[in-house]
Amino acid sequence: MFFLPLFDENPSKNAPLVTWFFIGLCFIIFFYQFNLTSYLELKFFFKYSFIPFFFNDFNNQNPISFLNPYFTLVTSAFLHAGWMHILGNMLYLWIFGDNVEDSMGKLRFVLFYLLCAVSGSLLQYYSNPYSEIPIIGASGAIAGVLGSYLILYPKANIKVFIWIIIFIRTVNVPAWIVLSIWILGQFFSLSNEISSNGGGVAYFAHIGGFIAGLVLTPIMKNKDVSLFNDQLSSPWQVSKANKSDLKYTFTHNRGSSLPVFKKSKGSLPNFKR
After folding, report:
1. Could you tell me if residue 236 is inside a domain?
2. Cα separation, 20 vs 101, whole angstroms
3. Is residue 271 domain-resident?
4. Domain that residue 82 falls in
5. What is the mean pLDDT of the chain?
6. Rounded to 5 degrees, what are φ and ψ at 171?
């Protein structure tokens, strides 16, 4: 079974400039590291990734990095280990980030995003404070965005691509189901994370970011934004998958001069990511 969210049917009221900026910045950094030699790329990762061992004891100075370990809690969130890593992260940020940004405003969303990134790395740190494995990726921050979306728009419909053998369809699935499946998957995968001493997926970072998103959203959202908003379209609508589901259109909200951006029908080894 292949299960992939494509877009939500929940148009934002304003251009998600911060979301676009974070996506663009991640890709710029990724293309930069992609063009480095293997040695320089590895050195680049060790400079800017978060390494719990060096954070645990500042006397254990990272011989490669000049950064204070506190700064790497943020810089590590803009590094990615490969194409699947960055494409998966940026897809989720593209789908869910615009509405969360709308609910908070741009400056608070920047702070929210970075706090979720830091929270994710810290929980990963506390799970193994003496680990020398670099932690990279925006997953903690994006997990926070998912947690925020869950309590802001649990009934909003997510257009999901489903492929089961010969059954290929797109289905409108309520956000609370899509995001619940995601977070439950992180908990179920923890057994592999705990038993593994090598690189892989930093599930504690995902869970830490998600929890931070749940906690911070009621505090950081705009006062006129309510939690648990009602759905905007009918759930469980099934249609054949087609190319138009992968396209994005720009529409305007009637009765408002503000543009509405609506997403319409239309590796590196031994790294935690």
Report:
1. yes
2. 11
3. no
4. 2-262
5. 82
6. -130, 140
219 C-beta neighbours (distance < 10 Å), count: 9
- The secondary structure of 144-183 as a DSSP string is HHHHHHHHH-TT-EEEEEEEETTEEEEEEEEHHHHHHHHH
d(CA 150, CA 259): 24
pLDDT per residue over 18-54, tens digit each?
Answer: 999 999 999 999 999 989 998 998 889 888 999 888 8
Number of domains within the chain = 1
> Residue 196 — φ and ψ, nearest 5°?
-100, 135
On whether residue 272 sits in a domain, the answer given is: no
Q: What is the CATH number of the domain that holds 193?
A: 1.20.1540.10
How far, CA to CA in Å, does 134 sit from each of 128, 152, 237? 12, 33, 43
Does the residue 117 lie in any domain? yes
- Angle at the Cα of 51 (from 50 to 52), degrees rounded to 5? 115
pTM of the model: 0.82
Which pair of tokens denotes residue 114? 């970075």
Q: Could you tell me the two tokens for 35?
A: 């063009």
Q: Per residue in 161-211, pLDDT tens? A: 888 777 678 888 999 999 998 888 888 776 665 555 555 678 899 999 999
How far is residue 53's CA from residue 123's CA, in Å, rounded to a whole number?
14
How many Å apart are CA 205 and CA 193, to the nearest integer?
A: 11
- 253: its two tokens: 């909200």
